[in-house]
């Protein structure tokens, strides 16, 4: 991939910066020519084209940006934007404007996880692995020295009937995100739990997904709909490292029965694969093989084969 995958970046309309950590790091690594082996200044060598624009750019200006590419660049028209990609935290919604519609339907969108509902197209779009802000050691916990203290752990973020039901069960530990517990203590709690529960799509905090994997806590993703925007969907077999649970059914009793039935070799395999997968969630100051930046680039590399149309003058 490193030897034959090249990206050309259009000149940004203005100087700008991204506000979220994962977006900022990804964009910084793309701009750093000295450490980015995928960058090329020759568009004829490029497999994909990056369209940089500020995160707060209005739909009208985005439309104008795409229109200018259509008029002034031969590369957009040959694939209708299918070999282009852009970075947008919440993603771009569908619109009647032709330029935005082509950008949305054809170009690869890279957004933050979780993606805004309705703004993610699973067969082509990508989400960035969330940045772990933990300060405790990064060595993988390959073996837990004792049995987990809790069946499940989750962070409390707001109020929900599900959280209230969990709080009444001694097998689950709920920690308020506003507590003064140190990062080290939080890491100890995660490592001492068999499962880590994530409320997807209900305002829950999913930013510590990679940290849960690294500390050997098997993620349980609880959602009322299919989850199609998980990070690294082309890299990881999520069904082998996480448990997926719907919100309808028998409530906490059914959840405990499901989790209690995952043990022995099956649990050890899930936890071990999760610890191994955690390396792909690491954002390094300088990109390293198999880290988050390279895994996103790998997903882009998988999308490099697109149909390109001949220009009209080439038809004769």
UniProtKB/TrEMBL annotation:
Keyword terms: Glycosyltransferase, Golgi apparatus, Signal-anchor, Transferase, Transmembrane
Residue ranges annotated for the Exostosin GT47 domain, each copy included: 4-245
UniProt keyword annotation of Cytoplasm present: no
Q: Which GO terms describe its cellular component?
A: Golgi membrane
Q: In what way does this protein cross or attach to the membrane?
A: Single-pass type II membrane protein
Compartments in which it is found: Golgi apparatus membrane
Against InterPro entries, the record matches this protein to:
Exostosin (IPR004263), Exostosin_GT47 (IPR040911)
This protein's source sits in the domain of life called Eukaryota
GO terms for MF: glycosyltransferase activity
Per its UniProt record, what PANTHER family does this chain match?
EXOSTOSIN GT47 DOMAIN-CONTAINING PROTEIN, EXOSTOSIN HEPARAN SULFATE GLYCOSYLTRANSFERASE -RELATED
Q: Which family does it belong to?
A: Belongs to the glycosyltransferase 47 family.
Question: What is this protein's name?
Answer: Exostosin GT47 domain-containing protein
Q: Which organism is it from?
A: Camellia sinensis var. sinensis
Q: What is the lineage of its organism?
A: Eukaryota, Viridiplantae, Streptophyta, Embryophyta, Tracheophyta
């Amino acid at each position: 991939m490193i030897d034959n995958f090249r990206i050309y970046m259009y000149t940004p309309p203005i100087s700008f910066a991204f506000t979220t950590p994962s977006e900022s790091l990804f964009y910084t690594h793309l701009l750093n020519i000295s450490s980015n082996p995928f960058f090329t200044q020759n568009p004829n060598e490029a497999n994909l084209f990056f369209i940089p624009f500020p995160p707060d750019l209005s739909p009208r200006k985005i439309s104008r940006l795409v229109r200018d590419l259509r008029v002034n660049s031969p590369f957009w028209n040959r694939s209708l934007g299918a070999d282009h990609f852009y970075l947008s935290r919440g993603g771009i919604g569908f619109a009647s404007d032709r330029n935005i519609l082509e950008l949305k339907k054809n170009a690869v969108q890279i957004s933050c996880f979780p993606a805004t509902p309705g703004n993610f197209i699973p067969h082509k779009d990508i989400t960035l692995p969330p940045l772990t802000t933990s300060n405790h050691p990064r060595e993988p916990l390959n073996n837990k020295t004792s049995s987990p203290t809790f069946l499940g752990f989750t962070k409390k973020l707001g109020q929900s009937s599900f959280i209230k039901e969990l709080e009444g069960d001694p097998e689950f530990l709920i920690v308020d995100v506003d507590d003064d517990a140190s990062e080290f203590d939080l890491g100890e709690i995660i490592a001492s739990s068999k499962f880590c529960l994530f409320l997807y799509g209900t305002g829950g905090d999913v930013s510590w997904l990679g940290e849960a994997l690294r500390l050997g806590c098997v993620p349980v993703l609880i959602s009322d709909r299919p989850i199609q925007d998980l990070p690294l969907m082309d890299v990881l077999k999520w069904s082998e490292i996480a448990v997926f649970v719907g919100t309808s059914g028998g409530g906490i009793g059914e959840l405990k029965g499901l989790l209690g039935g995952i043990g022995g070799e099956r649990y050890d395999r899930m936890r071990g694969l999760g610890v191994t997968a955690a390396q792909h969630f690491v954002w390094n100051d300088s990109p390293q093989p198999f880290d988050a930046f390279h895994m996103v680039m790998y997903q882009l590399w998988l999308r490099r084969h697109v149909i390109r149309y001949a220009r009209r003058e080439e038809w004769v």
